[in-house]
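Letters spell out the chain; backbone shape is given numerically. Both lines appear below:
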Amino acid sequence: MAATKTDSRSQTARARARQAIATELERARKRESKLVAVFSAIDARADAEAALGEALIVLKDLGVAQSDLAEMTGLSAREVGAAIRAAKDRADGEAAETTPDSSIDGDARGEDSQSDNNGAHDH
């Protein structure tokens, strides 16, 4: 009869362990879901900030003074300046990503480099 009691306790322990794991997995799924929402919101905010900065730059290029932009939009002068800088920085970063890297040497680009024998190539 002692073996039956031990088996029963082992089964109960396993069931409690499974329940604890199931509870933790559910918490992890909820955390993951909320983190996805957070990262999506961060991406949306970055896109909105870029659009704000780009629009402010266009208005500035159309002759609206930066102080007037702040007054017209209800943003502080600091917020207007930060949005414009962020848009310019983002544009500069995107331009740098699309510009070929001039630091790559000719060999890596498939160009012939001059050899030690005044440009003559061994064939």
About this structure: Residues 7-96 form one domain. The two ends are 91 Å apart (CA to CA). Residues 115 and 123 are 13 Å apart (CA to CA).
